[in-house]
Design goal:
Layout: E1 15-22, E2 28-34, E3 39-42, E4 48-52, E5 61-65, E6 70-74, E7 81-84, E8 89-90, E9 110-116, E10 121-126, E11 131-137, E12 141-146, E13 151-157, E14 163-168, E15 173-178, E16 186-191, H1 193-217, E17 254-260, E18 265-270, E19 274-280, H2 282-289, H3 296-303, H4 309-332, E20 334-341, E21 347-353, E22 363-368, E23 373-377, E24 382-386, E25 406-412, E26 417-422, E27 427-431, E28 441-445, E29 452-458, E30 463-468, E31 472-476, E32 483-488, E33 493-498, E34 505-509, E35 512-516, E36 523-528, E37 534-540, E38 545-550, E39 554-559, H5 566-574, E40 589-594
Antiparallel strand pairs: 1-2, 2-3, 3-4, 5-6, 6-7, 7-8, 9-10, 10-11, 11-40, 12-39, 13-14, 14-15, 15-16, 17-18, 18-19, 19-20, 21-22, 22-23, 23-24, 25-26, 26-27, 27-28, 29-30, 30-31, 31-32, 33-34, 34-35, 35-36, 37-38, 38-39
Helix pairs in contact: 2-4
């Protein structure tokens, strides 16, 4: 055989292992490991692509796993180092579920690695003559993001690039953006709680100054409801912002959050009874939107004869609009733009009523441990009204919304109704109206035996879904007149969301995620990986993923349940075939089966 190419200085020491791997995109690499504690990835023609170093000892073996497209390196540690060969990045910390935390304390190290595609298993030998096996789990965690505090809330924006936001127990909002290099790694930008407090202090100082000025000009008057300046939603003589002593919960956890796409606002509810509104920096957006390349005018002048005048103007306007939406705002960054104060305890739920629902502005409802509901005008950035009974001109006519604390809330655009779950074991459904005195009670959902922690409107099947600490999930008609189905999830329901693609019911039952089919209500998928209670669940339909946040201080990303088309299900059932929920291209985790 004739030598086509030879690299006499591929490594500084002897080469121990060489493998040739190919992924599903027909990318082919050669990977070598050496006594010099370096792994190198080469192209097919022998050109160096990536150099991987920083290993503790000599590299003893290499293994490529095509199911999750990772390169495993055995290098004198009790667990393998995982790399993405396409980008050369170390993704070990983002695939934490593929390794057992207890292995770090073991006094042995991996020596040999081998992947068996027929079994979807990785087999390894150790220095203590043990055999270890990792098996591919299609329902396993795709990515794990580890933080220092409990995760309470999650939300995201669907605009490109897709951004994920998490609220944690220390009051910090983290913005996450997936890197283009691979699907495992995420970049982060924290929004510190100190900035929120600075904005709150600024608003308090401004309000105190305005109050002093108004007292000097005129005596206190009782304004009509339509034109009155709302100083408080509870009582006329209460201050507009409660004092710190009225806060029954001194912590700073961000218990709920939502992103308003129409206004590009991130809104988070905090345990300190305040609602913090984050948005793109308007000053930076204004500056960036007017920045143009220096050579743009010269190019337009040079090629203007080739462009129709109207076409040039339209294309320029469309381009500027697109850049403003997808690039300018992201570059400008987020700042705390407003603080909504008025509740007396933890903010537990937020529900946005879009302008498309037929109202003059975009409104938001907020629920709290104080059992009251506030209506906020997001476009004007202020309190609009509060839920109460009585005539509009009766200023002191205020009513608590329920007998127990409010734990969750959602809005139904079909019927212009909102529902809120309470600790009194009930769910209340009311008509929405910007006037707080015109929100009548439509129905009450009764049936749960313990606190109702979750309520969601399923827009796909047009039904209400509730979950409670009694370990049950109930599906109700759209008018709330009857309960259609009761699902037992074998544990308290701590989080719940609706699959926006197929209407599946995604339940967080303690530390497990369980997915139920919306047609026959059978359990079709279970995701294990969290080690503590799940506090928040969202579905990102653009990526076919579920995202969960937990008290174990991790954010985990999972493949969403994909329903098999009806015709295919009937055909498979006729042949006695088992329905699979995943495709070979899906990325899951490798779980440790045996030590």
């Amino acid at each position: 055989m004739k030598v086509i190419y030879c690299n006499p200085r591929a490594h500084d020491a002897g080469i121990i292992v060489l493998i040739l791997n190919k992924d599903t995109d027909n990318n082919t690499w050669m990977v070598t490991g050496s006594f010099d504690k370096v792994v190198k990835i080469w192209s097919q023609d022998g050109q160096l692509t990536y150099r991987l170093d920083g290993f503790i000892t000599t590299v003893t073996d290499l293994c490529y796993v095509p199911r999750n497209r990772t390169l495993w390196v055995a290098c004198g540690s009790p667990s393998a180092w995982l790399y993405d060969p396409k980008s050369g990045e170390n993704v070990s910390e983002f695939i934490g579920s593929s390794q057992d935390d207890d292995l770090d304390t073991c006094k042995y190290h991996l020596q040999l690695l081998k992947y068996f595609p027929e079994l979807n298993e990785v087999v390894a030998s150790t220095s203590r003559r043990h055999i270890m096996i990792w098996k591919y789990n299609p329902h396993g965690c795709v990515t794990t993001i580890t933080l220092k505090h409990t995760i309470h809330s999650l939300t995201y924006t669907s605009k490109v690039p897709i951004l994920l936001f998490s609220g944690s127990a220390d009051g910090v909002v983290n913005k996450w953006e997936r890197l283009q290099a691979n699907h495992f790694m995420y970049s982060t930008e924290p929004f510190p709680f100190s900035e929120s407090q600075s904005k709150l202090a600024e608003l308090k100082g401004l309000l105190a100054k305005n109050d002093a000025r108004s007292r000097l000009k005129s005596s206190r008057k009782l304004f009509p409801h339509q034109n009155r300046p709302i100083s408080s939603q509870y009582c006329y003589r209460n201050p507009a912002m409660p004092t710190a002593s009225s806060h029954t919960h001194p912590n700073t956890g961000l218990l709920c959050s939502t992103f308003v796409e129409a206004l590009d606002l991130l809104i988070v509810g905090c345990e300190d009874s305040n609602i913090y509104v984050w948005g793109f920096d308007p000053v930076a957006v204004e500056v960036l939107s007017h920045m143009e390349p220096a050579e743009k005018l010269e190019l337009v002048r040079k090629y203007s004869i080739l462009l129709h005048h109207d076409t040039n103007n339209n294309s320029t306007a469309d381009k500027q609009s697109e850049e403003h939406d997808s690039v300018t705002n992201r570059v400008a960054g987020f700042i705390c733009r407003n603080v909504f104060s008025g509740h007396l305890s933890c903010i537990t739920s937020l529900a946005v009523i879009p302008k498309e629902a037929g109202f003059k502005s975009t409104y938001m409802l907020s629920g709290s441990w104080d059992r009251r509901i506030s209506i906020w005008d997001l476009e004007k950035g202020k309190l609009h009204d509060t839920f109460r009974n009585g005539a509009p001109d009766m200023y002191d006519s205020i009513e608590l919304a329920c007998d127990g604390i409010i734990l969750d809330m959602d809005y139904c655009p079909k019927r212009n109704e909102f529902a809120y779950a309470s600790a009194d074991k009930l769910v209340y459904i009311r008509k929405f109206h910007p006037n707080g005195s015109r929100m009548p009670l439509v129905n009450t959902l009764q049936g749960h035996e313990r606190e109702v922690t979750q309520v969601k409107w399923n827009n796909v099947i047009e039904k209400w879904v509730t979950g409670a600490e009694d370990g049950s999930v109930r599906i109700w008609t759209d008018d709330g007149m009857s309960c259609l189905q009761v699902l037992n999830v074998h544990g308290p329901v701590t989080a719940l969301c609706v699959d926006l693609t197929n209407g599946g019911i995604v339940v967080g039952a303690e530390n497990a995620i369980k997915v139920f089919d919306p047609e026959d209500y059978r359990q079709v998928q279970t995701n294990h990986g969290h080690t503590d209670a799940i506090h928040s669940l969202i579905h990102i339909p653009e990526r076919h993923q579920y995202v969960s946040g937990s008290a174990d201080k991790t954010i985990r990303i999972w493949n969403a349940y994909r329903r098999v088309p009806r015709k295919k299900r009937v055909k498979m059932a006729a042949h006695g075939m088992v329905t699979l929920q995943t495709t070979p291209s899906e990325v899951g985790e490798l779980t440790d089966d045996d030590n």
